[in-house]
Amino acid sequence: MLTGSIVALITPMDDAGEIDFQALKSLVDYHVEAGTAAIVSVGTTGESATLNVDDHVKVVMKTLEFADGRIPVIAGNGANSTSEAIALSKLFQSSGVAAGLSVTPYYNKPTQEGLFLHYKTIAESSTLPQILYNVPGRTAVDMKPETVARLAKLDNIIGIKEATGDLQRLADIKALVSDDFALYSGDDATGLDFMLQGGHGVISVTTNVAAAQMAKMCQHAQAGETEAAKAIDQRLMPVHDKLFVEANPIPVKWACCRLGLIPNDTLRLPLTTLSSPLQPEVEAALKQASLID
């Protein structure tokens, strides 16, 4: 089981919106050196919703190449079409990725039975281990603990990224699944508490800009060094907050560019760069966390 600080990696792009593979290599090296536990490539923070399938696959495969066995890679394979998620799973199943991270189908608002059948069909279609991803604030559908429990019984479904920010949700799921079912927070602001209450790690946006600090925080949490972990978390709290002043990944791309981790903060439409009035707020958060002078 992967544990600790897992980065929901941004996808760097050049001025024309094409993938910047040199910047991607630099980001992978940055996370290896900082002690990040694993990389999620082309998850929702990696702009999976606006990358075409060809670019999606290229970025995952290049991330694997650049990682070169030094850090595990999880591939985003979610879609609001079950057939598309199956196709991505099949493409990645023999690639060397550790698992797929599959977001709940967005917009079409399936029932709980629809969610169960969606993930069951994906899991049965390939040998790629599947991590569920529940983020109702973005998808308009909430996968309930009882549905997670049904899915956790399937051999190929190994964990969940739970991004409601509701710690009671963690307790509810934890009571229904086995100890070897991986529980990851998808909410940086409550990620430490999630780990201290029995979660296994954080699939994090903040880790894009504070990789070493997030890795150390998670290590402290895993070791039971609560006060040390809380000290880091409190220092990073302004970043946890301000990286969501506009829709993710708009602020984190701007922050990565401000820190010199990528050459520019280009996104693909319909996403646009961080609004000028909000840029000082994100910069101030980076300063408060001692990420820049």
TrEMBL record:
Catalytic reaction equation(s): L-aspartate 4-semialdehyde + pyruvate = (2S,4S)-4-hydroxy-2,3,4,5-tetrahydrodipicolinate + H2O + H(+)
GO molecular function annotations of the record: 4-hydroxy-tetrahydrodipicolinate synthase activity
CDD domains attached to this UniProt entry: DHDPS
Active site residues per record: Y133 (proton donor/acceptor), K161 (schiff-base intermediate with substrate)
EC number: 4.3.3.7
Binding site residues for pyruvate: T45, I203
Top-rank taxon, per record: Bacteria
Top enzyme class: lyase
Coiled coil: none
The protein's annotated pathway: Amino-acid biosynthesis; L-lysine biosynthesis via DAP pathway; (S)-tetrahydrodipicolinate from L-aspartate: step 3/4
InterPro entries xrefs: Aldolase_TIM (IPR013785), DapA (IPR005263), DapA-like (IPR002220), Schiff_base-form_aldolases_AS (IPR020625)
Subcellular location: Cytoplasm
Residues of the site described as Part of a proton relay during catalysis: T44, Y107
Keywords for the protein's UniProt record, in alphabetical order: Amino-acid biosynthesis, Cytoplasm, Diaminopimelate biosynthesis, Lyase, Lysine biosynthesis, Schiff base
Subunit structure: Homotetramer; dimer of dimers.
Main function: Catalyzes the condensation of (S)-aspartate-beta-semialdehyde [(S)-ASA] and pyruvate to 4-hydroxy-tetrahydrodipicolinate (HTPA).
Family to which this protein belongs: Belongs to the DapA family.
Protein name: 4-hydroxy-tetrahydrodipicolinate synthase
Biological source species: Motilimonas cestriensis
Name of the coding gene: dapA
